[in-house]
Structures are given as structure tokens and as C-alpha cells.
Please model this.
Amino acid sequence: MRTKTFFDLLLFKTEANLRTEVSRYYLNYLWWVIEPVLTMGVFYIVFGIFMNRGTDHFVGFLLAGLTFWNWFMRSVNNASSSIMGGQGLMQQVAIPKVFFPLEVVLRDCFKLLFSLSLLLLFLIFYPTPVSLTWFALPILMAVQFLLVLGSATLFAALVPFVPDLKFIIATVLHLMFFGSGVFFDIDKMVLPEHLFIIYLNPMAGLLKAYRQILLYDTWPDWFYLVKVFVFALLLLAFSLWLIFRYDHIYPRVCQQ
Amino acid sequence: MRSAPLIRLKNVGCRFKVRHKMMRFKSYEALKDVSFTLNRGEALGIIGRNGAGKSTLLKLIAGILLPDSGQVLLHGNPSIALLTLQLGFSSELSGRYNAVLGAMLLGYTKKEALARLDKIIEFSELAQWIEEPMKTYSSGMKARLGFAVAMEMSPDVLLIDEVLGVGDAAFRAKSMKAMKEKFQAEQTIAFVSHAGSTVKELCNRTVWIENGVTKMEGPTDEVVDAYEEYLSTHDRSLEK
Model:
């Protein structure tokens, strides 16, 4: 398949799938906005009202963490079954299989635009300062994008061989969710001697960085970000190598 | 250049593993030893009974699967596509959308697909239906659109897996005519079928695959006659 065709097809199919997803529902495109509002609403009710320990600006803290955590979690989750889901297509066309996780990641990025806009809009009116550090947002998101792409491709490449991995991935994501401090401040809740371990999880450090720049007018720990960037790059390189290496195996494996 | 070989299969074999319980696998051989040549500009028929490995063979030629043994040699760098009438169809989206998608899946860029969209729509005879979501289409209409895409956007080598019998009688006649034109033109085609008659009508040379092995290769009339002869004796022996 020509490179131009591949990327044309990638964008076109992403758009087509987005349209297909919403066309089933009465409220159609509105769900791109309503859905993140509902998710945020649930977390606000549980952690912002019932479990509120009086932390300052807890709602902003929670929503900032949740938005970027969800981006990671959804892409990885959706991508892990993407190659199996692309079976119909790959049995008919000689298509590079990296197409499937890429398409899922793009689709989730598009949906992120809505929850991100909502978050930024909310933070503008929120008592925390809108500061110069907001300019670091694209950098953080670029790093997270690489991490999302690498993880998504890795799981997409592995799951067809061992479908049972899906359960392991769900467990790992669960663990990461609790370990990333989506609804609590890691630096206050975790024993100092365990902080090192917690921050081995790149999402924990990323969420902290997002909050620093969006809520607290603080520049992030650049050295940590460089480490995450390098890790994400290596992960992506490995995943791409893997998925291209087994490109012709997938149509067979998926038939088993 | 009409007889220059374009694709050559040499002792191609293909095994599939099927998982039964837990970690246990059974493998079966879809193809054992298949060799033949597809020349530029020719229409090659591939016949064989159900389960002879014909569809697997097309997937190997299309580059979807790689053979376990033997080789598939391509001369030059031809674009090859498998004609399937349901290619990438998304039932929630309009026929127009799906036509573009189908054309791109056959290897064209979006620009190229859009440029030929009018012709596709015209051929499909869907008229204003083209704007409706495909879930509202009858199966005949879907097949017509798929066929129209494939006919307008054919790649260097077109692999066809028994798809005639599309739509109503009038459209069937039209598609048969379009197919014949394709088959007579410079289009290189591999046409798979289990029915001798269609192959006779469309192809000048034919390969007969039986149990994953090339049984015979040669002029269509000879091969198809031998195949039908074999079938009738085989069926008779089964009845006894």
C-alpha cells in the first residue's frame, strides 16, 4: 500500500468511525461533549462532595487529572483489541496492521479535544490562576501522545497472540489509575520512601506536571519530562518494530 | 508484453493452526504445493471444489498472507487487490462515503477516489440513494456499489472471488458485460470459481486446484472439461 494511500485512508477511516459511533444515538454529536461532562460529574459527586477532605481547589485538581488520565486509559483500552477488530479488513486488503491502533489513537485524540476544551474553559473561571505556565501544555501533551501511541501500539501488537492479555491490561490500568493520583495528591498521601516507586509510573509524573502548569503557576520538572519522553520514544520504537515484524502473521493469528 | 509473467507461484504451501483447547493446536494444510504463472494482461481462471484452497490462494497472491513454503514472485511492482463486494462497508454511512472508502482500500489516494466517484455512482445506478446510509440498502444495492467501485478503480491485478450474480437480472447482464470487457482488455485477472461454466465464459487459461495441489494448468476448455469429468465420476463414487 502506498504511503499516501495509507495516511489518506487513516484520516478517512477515523472520520468514518467517528461518524458511525455517534450516528446510533439520538443526541448524536452532542455526546462528544455530554459524555466527558457526565464522567466528570460522577467524579465530582464522589470525590468533590462526599469524600471531600477540604483540600483546596479539589475540583480543578480532580478534573485536570481525570481528563488526561482518561485519554491514556481509553486509547490503551480501545487499541488493545483494535487488530482483532480489524480482522474483516485485514482479510481482504494487504494493509499494514499498525493502521488499526493508529486509527484508534487518532479517534480518541479527537474526542480529547472536547473534554480538553471543557477543562480549559472550566479552569479559566476557576479561582486558580491562568498563567504563563499554560504554554507548557502542548509540550506535556506531545510527551503524553508519544506515551499513548507507544503503549497502544504495544498492546495492539501483543493481544492478538494472547487474547488473555486483555484481562492483564485491565488490571494494570486499574493499578495505574490508583497509582497515578487521579483523585488524590501523591506527594501528600504516599510515604516519602515510596514516592520513587510511584513516579516510575510515567502517568503519575505527567498528571502532576499538568496540575503544576494548569493550576499552580509552576513550571514542571523538565528533567522528569525528558526521561518520560525518552522512555516513550523507546517504547514506540519497540512497538512499531514488533507490529511490523509480525505484520503478515496477524491475519492468520486472528483466524485461530 | 501480453505474455510476460507478472506473478509466479512456486510450490506454494500454506498451513493454518487452529486452537482447540487451552494451549493445544491442530494444524491443517490449506495449500500443499501450488505452482502456476499469471501473465500480464491475461484472465486466468482458478477452479476447484469448495475447500480446495482457492480463497487462501487469492490471499497469498494479494499479499495478505505469506506462504509457509514456496514462493510468490512478483515481476515489477504491480498493485494487486482482492475484489470483495463488501469491502470496508460501514452501514451507518452513506453510499458515497463507502464508495470513497472502498476505492481507497483498493489502493487509491483520496484525490484519485474522489475524481472517479461520479463514474462509480453512475455505474452503480444508485442515483439519489447514494446519499442514504447503507443500512437502508438492499443486498443487491450493496453489491452493485461494491461492484461499481471495483470496476472503476481496478488495480494492475484484480483478484476475483466468485462474485457474479450481483443484483437483479438487468444489472447482472451489465456487470457480466463489464467483466467481459475487463477480461478482454489489458487487465490482468485471476478469477476463482467452483463453477466451470463461468470460467469458460470469461477466462482463456485455467488452473485447477484439488486438495491444495495444482492438478492441471492449461487452456480453459481442456482444464474445465477434465475438472467436470472428474467431478461427475467423483460424485458418482460418493453416491455408491
